[in-house]
Write a structure and sequence with these properties.
The complex is a heterodimer.
Chain A lengths: L17 E4 L2 E6 L9 E5 L4 E6 H4 L1 H16 L7 E4 L6 E5 L4 E3 L13 H12 L9 E5 L4 E5 L10 H4 L19 H17 L2 H14 L3 H16 L1 H12 L4
Parallel strand pairs in A: 1-5
Antiparallel strand pairs in A: 2-3, 3-4, 4-6, 5-6, 7-8, 8-9
Helix pairs in contact in A: 2-3, 2-6, 3-5, 3-8, 6-7
Chain B lengths: L3 E7 L9 E9 L2 E6 L13 H14 L15 E3 L3 E2 L7 H8 L19 H11 L6 E5 L14 E6 L4 E8 L5 H21 L5 E8 L3 H10 L6 E4 L3 H22 L1
The chains are: A alpha+beta, B alpha+beta.
Chain lengths: 253, 262
Amino acid sequence: MARRPKGGGDELALREHLHRLASWQEHGDVKVEHNNEAKYVVADDGSKWVMKKVSITGPNQFLAEAISYQLAHLLGLSVPTGGVGGSGEGLAWFSSLQPTVAHYSPARLPMTSQQADFGRIVALDVWVINEDRHAGNVLLVSGDTSFTPCFIDFGSAMVGHPADYVKRINYVPREAEFVARTVAPELLWRGAQEAADAIDRLHEDDVRGVVVEACALVGFETDAAPLSEAVLARRVVLRELIRAFFARLGVTP
Amino acid sequence: MTSGYHLLQFVPDPFAETAITFGALVETAGAWRFEPAGPGERLLPPALPAAATTLFRSLVAELHSLTAPRLPISLGPHVRLKPRLDVPSGVDDPARWVVSHVLPVADVLVRSERRHQRTRRSTLGKLFLRQHQVAKYVHAYFKPEMLGARAHSMKPISQYVVGGHETMLLEPVYLDTDHFEQELQEVTGTLFAWESLTRRRKQQNLSFSVYALGSSRNNLQFLSESLSESGVTIVDTSMQAERQRFVASIRTIAESTDALHS
């Protein structure tokens, strides 16, 4: 029987990294491939977001986004602010709109700053087992003279499927389309090592808190404890997994 | 069989939905190519932020490489491809027809010139140096006066690294810019003038390097040929070994100053 999301942003006190949206107006579809039926919305306070309804994406995708975005924020990674609105069948995941963006292209690399971030996101993607990092979910946010990477769409991360994730503590993700293949390997390695250091420094209670809250949002309370422990257990072996992931792609420092 | 075309629109804000037609993908003899509107970025409203202009330039550069009437994901959400329209039968040059008769032309515009400057090669150079954590060793503008020379009208070298026994002079070059030839002339002219000056003054502790950013192999070849009779070292930063050697040499030279004074 499919699980129905319950609870939601209306009923729970959200952690500091999640924004609560009380109401909003839809402004049309996001017209990019791989957008997972995302829509532009404006909240009543005028803030602009990209919305994905749980009724379309399913609760597992919501869970994956909620956990991954919050971990990303704890680590200071380049991701949009996450938000939650609605409840039950009306529950939706929101990510703050990034203005003036293109998507990743190797041709834009000379104009892209913070390229070590492509390595940092590898560390998180390996941790949450996200095997879907392609150009469609790597934004390059335009500044006056350069672009800055920003990473979106964690909906495919296996951490959103607790029964699968807990069985794969030592699993090395496969990357069908490793988007950062053309980034300098030394920058990828440096970013991944820095993120792994930051992941090591996270307090266990904070990691558990992220997982428990996200599970509660979608009504997966019984998964919260085993999933938290699996996320923490995978953290212990994360550096080896990152090394193996890079080795599989032929990325050497 | 008629040729077709698709208008391209830049939508800087998906909420306001302002759409600026800035070009078209045009089919000529079965092949598709991007044709920009004559006014180029002067089509953009002056009120748009500089970031929008930077993005627009990058999108246009990418569109020039398209060969099919389909937008790659990398272009992102700010470019829209409109449905196919037909060029009238009997038109010999579909591209010229679309540019002349469909796309915006200069004489209907009242916009002023864009104020936002193109990203300079020195800015891209600094970006590269920051990524590799050696920007702190590199200074801007090495001038003739620094050698005690009086060639005041001579252009300074863009960047330099001071070491205990050697000064490394650097010029970044962006291979993928649409005004590469102009920049190449500027860089080679500057470097040849400096080589001549240092030879006359018998200056022996200066080295010259050009580090090439971007991917155009043709332009890298032009660069190499242009400097083939100079003593300038060319670094292709897209090659891992060359890039790492270059970064290491900056660090080594800069830190030799510390060693000298410690």
